[in-house]
Amino acid sequence: NAGVTQTPKFRVLKTGQSMTLLCAQDMNHEYMYWYRQDPGMGLRLIHYSVGEGTTAKGEVPDGYNVSRLKKQNFLLGLESAAPSQTSVYFCASSSRRSHQGSEQFFGPGTRLTVL
Amino acid sequence: TQLLEQSPQFLSIQEGENLTVYCNSSSVFSSLQWYRQEPGEGPVLLVTVVTGGEVKKLKRLTFQFGDARKDSSLHITAAQPGDTGLYLCAGAGGRSQGNLIFGKGTKLSVKP
Fold this sequence. Notes:
The complex is a heterodimer of chains A (115) and B (112).
Chain A: E1 4-7, E2 10-13, E3 19-25, E4 31-38, E5 42-49, E6 56-57, E7 65-67, E8 73-78, E9 87-94, E10 105-106, E11 110-114
Parallel strand pairs in A: 2-11
Antiparallel strand pairs in A: 1-3, 3-8, 4-5, 4-9, 5-6, 7-8, 9-10, 9-11
Chain B: E1 5-7, E2 10-14, E3 19-24, E4 31-37, E5 44-49, E6 55-58, E7 61-65, E8 71-76, E9 85-92, E10 100-102, E11 106-111
Parallel strand pairs in B: 2-11
Antiparallel strand pairs in B: 1-3, 3-8, 4-5, 4-9, 6-7, 7-8, 9-10, 9-11
C-alpha cells in the first residue's frame, strides 16, 4: 500500500499561472481533504470531499477549486496563482468523519512557491 | 470559530528531560487527536482521546483529555532526540462540521 501520494513534490509558479495538485489514495477511503500549512499557522482546511463527486468548502477556500471525479483521487486547482498561496499543501484521507474519531492519513506534501 | 491554542510554540530541551505540551480551547470537542510531523513529511497520528478525563499512554508519551473535553495535554518522559518534531493537536465535533480543527503546533527539539 502506498497510502496517500501527492504530485508534484515541489513547484514554482509565477503570479497568474495555473496548476493542479494531484492526490491519490489506495485505502478506499470515502473522505478526502486538502490543507495548507504556513509557518506559525498550523494546518488549515481548504476544501474537502465526503465521497466521489462531492466537494465542500473548508476554512480557507478562496482562490482554489477542487474535483473528486474518482473515489481515489482528489485534485486541487489554482486558477491564477498569487504569492499569498505560497505554502506547503497536504492531502489527507479518512474512512470516517473526524467527529467519529477517525484517523486522517496524510500525504508527504507539495511545497509551492509563487513568485 | 473554534480555536485550539497550543503552548508552548517552541521547546528546546536536553535528552532525558521531561516536558508537557498543552492544547486548550473554550469549546467542547467530541474527540481530540495528537499528531506528530517530521520535517518534509505529513503528520502522523499518535493517539485519539474521546472520553473526558481519559488518559492514554504510548511508551514514554502520556496523553490526557480534560474532564470537560475542552483541553488536552501531552507529557513526554525522558525525552530522546527521536522525539524531535512538530506536535499538533486537532479537535473534532462541536461546530467543526465533522472536520478537524488543528492547533498551530509545538515544535520540539531534543538535543543529545
